[in-house]
């Protein structure tokens, strides 16, 4: 059985003056991703894909270096488009994210609709898997769209209850059947 790892980037350096897609990993995020790259969980990866956002690219580069794999990019693996608001302070972001998941067919504050982000992410993952050799695959990206994919493959309605508990987690599904094989797990201790 080949496994697909849906991995979210770990901690980032948040800078309100920098567009969110350009944020990079923090030192803690780098350390946690390096620990994950050395773990037995991902030792047999045959392919590695990443979102084009900086934090995902940096995360995938760490896996790539540790496992001697080329990290390929699919631009549609990006996080839900939140460019209409840009950076939001944490309490305001959390409230907006709650609304995003609660009303998936509505554009909350100009954000990409959850149903559209889910369809985009699912199609991107299918393309990545079709273009990958046999074996385990890692998709490195973001919490919001990874949660939306988890809802889809679980056969559940879109809900924030499927969101990652914190940055730097992964869940898995069977590559052949698309059945979810694990819930969220941390990539490494925090």
What does this structure look like?
This protein is of the alpha/beta class and 190 residues long. It has one domain (3-186): Rossmann fold (3-Layer(aba) Sandwich), CATH 3.40.50. It is built from five helices and six strands. The chain has helices spanning 27-37, 54-67, 90-102, 114-130, 143-154, and strands spanning 3-8, 45-50, 71-73, 136-141, 169-174, 180-186. A six-stranded mixed beta sheet has the order 3-2-4-1-5-6, with helices on both faces. α1 packs parallel to α2 (54-67) and α4 crosses α5. The longest helix has 17 residues, at 114-130. The two termini are 30 Å apart. The mean pLDDT is 98.
Main β sheet profile: 6 strands, mixed
Q: What is the third-level CATH name, the topology?
A: Rossmann fold
Which strand order does the major sheet show? 3-2-4-1-5-6
Radius of gyration: 15 Å
Whole-number tally of structural domains:
1
Mass-distribution shape: globular
Compute the number of strand runs.
6
Any idea of the CATH class? Alpha Beta
- Binned, the helix content reads 25-40%
Along the chain, the helix and strand elements come as EHEHEHHEHEE
* Ends distance: 30 Å
Please identify the structural class as seen in this structure: alpha/beta
Question: What layout of secondary structure does this protein have?
Answer:
Layout: E1 3-8, H1 27-37, E2 45-50, H2 54-67, E3 71-73, H3 90-102, H4 114-130, E4 136-141, H5 143-154, E5 169-174, E6 180-186
Parallel strand pairs: 1-4, 2-3, 2-4
Antiparallel strand pairs: 1-5, 5-6
Helix pairs in contact: 1-2, 4-5
């Amino acid at each position: 059985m080949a496994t697909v790892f849906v991995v979210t980037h770990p901690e980032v350096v948040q800078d309100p003056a920098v567009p969110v897609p350009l944020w990079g990993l923090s030192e803690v995020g780098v350390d946690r991703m390096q620990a994950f790259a050395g773990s037995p969980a991902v030792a047999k990866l045959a392919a590695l894909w990443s979102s084009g956002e900086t934090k995902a690219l940096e995360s995938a580069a760490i896996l790539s270096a540790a496992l001697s794999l080329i990290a390929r990019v699919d631009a549609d693996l990006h996080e839900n488009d939140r460019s209409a608001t840009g950076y939001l302070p944490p309490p305001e972001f959390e409230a907006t994210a709650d609304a995003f998941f609660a009303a998936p067919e509505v554009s909350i504050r100009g954000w990409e609709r959850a149903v559209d982000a889910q369809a985009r992410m699912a199609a991107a993952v299918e393309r990545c898997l079709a273009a990958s050799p046999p074996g385990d695959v890692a998709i490195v990206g973001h919490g919001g769209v990874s949660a939306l994919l988890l809802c889809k493959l679980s056969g559940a309605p879109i809900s924030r209850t499927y969101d990652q508990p914190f940055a730097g987690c992964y869940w898995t599904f069977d590559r052949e059947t698309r059945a979810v094989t694990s819930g969220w797990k941390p990539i490494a201790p925090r």
